[in-house]
Structure formats: structure tokens, C-alpha cells
Amino acid sequence: MRRTAQTSAPAPAFEERSERDTLRTEFTFELPRGYVDESGTVHRTGVMRLATARDELVPLRDDRVRENSAYLSVVLISRVVTRIGTLDDIHPGIIEDLFASDLAFLQDFYRRINAEGHTRAAVTCPSCQEEFAVDLAGGRLGES
């Protein structure tokens, strides 16, 4: 009987992960108007995390959503926004009190990071009609 030696490559001791291998799960944003709390403080910056399947399924069991399907976005956004300004207990009541333009911004931001995987938007300059991309995450147009 003939035996053959089997060799196996040694397992790598430690492999560094490149930036390409890491998944970005949180995205900062700046609201167009801002959330105004009870004391009158305006909170503009915040963080939204990627949604999970549970984030999209749980609101469907909410009675408020069953009564009014438009309320789905309020509950969903409240689940994925982890901070607005100094507030880190984000619930539907806070999202309800946002200005309509801020809610629309967050709905679009949600769609961009969860469906498209980025926060860039194509825009056209109203003066010269040149098209370019801007990053919606944080900052305001024209600021660096």
C-alpha cells in the first residue's frame, strides 16, 4: 500500500479586512429645517441605520398603520433613525412632529440608503443646467 503525504496550506494567521469588505450600516444626515423640541431647540443632524426585514414587517402589525396606511412611513422611519441632534430616543411621536419637508427628506434618504445603497443624488444647476451629483449625508448644498 502506497501512502501519499497530504499537504495543506497553513491557515492565515490574521487577514485584514479592506474597506471594500466592510458594510456601512449607519448614515449621517442633516434635516432641511430641523426638529424643534419642547424647549424650542432645533435639532438638524442625525443618524439613520440600514433597515432590516423586521423593520419593514413590524409596522404592518401596528394598529395605527392598519387604520391609516400613510402612517407606515412614520413608524418605519422612527425605527431606523437612531439620533436627531441630542435626542437618541426616537419614536413615532417625534417623527410626527417633524416638518413635512423633513419627513419627505428622511423618506427619500431611507430609499437611497436601503434600495440604492448610497446617499448621492443627481441634481441640475438651475442657472447653467449642468448636471452633477451631491451627497445628501450631512452638510448643506454648497458647503464642504
Kindly list the characteristics that best describe this protein.
144 residues; alpha+beta; three-stranded antiparallel β-sheet; two-stranded antiparallel ribbon; disordered C terminus
Question: Which helices and strands appear, and what pairs or packs with what?
Answer:
Layout lengths: L25 E11 L5 E8 L3 H5 L5 H5 L4 H9 E4 L7 H5 L3 H17 L3 E5 L6 E5 L9
Antiparallel strand pairs: 1-2, 2-3, 4-5
Helix pairs in contact: 3-5
Describe this structure in words.
With 144 residues, the chain is of the alpha+beta class. Helices cover 28% and strands 23% of the residues. The chain has 5 helices and 5 strands, in the order E-E-H-H-H-E-H-H-E-E. The strands form 2 sheets. Strands 1-2-3 form a 3-stranded antiparallel sheet. Strands 4-5 form a two-stranded antiparallel sheet. Strand 1 and strand 2 form a beta hairpin. Helix 3 crosses helix 5 (100-116).
What's this entry about, in short?
With about 140 residues, this protein is α+β, with helices and mostly antiparallel strands.
Instruction: Walk across the major sheet and give the strand order.
Output: 1-2-3
**Percent range for β-strand residues:** 15-25%
Kindly provide the radius of gyration, computed on alpha-carbon positions and rounded to a whole number of angstroms: 22 Å
The helicity comes to 25-40%
Give the SSE string. EEHHHEHHEE
The total count of helices amounts to 5
Global shape: globular
Kindly state the mean pLDDT as a whole number? 83
Distance between the termini: 74 Å
Structural class: alpha+beta
Q: Outline the low-pLDDT stretches.
A: 139-144
> How does the major sheet shape up?
3 strands, antiparallel
How many β strands by DSSP? 5
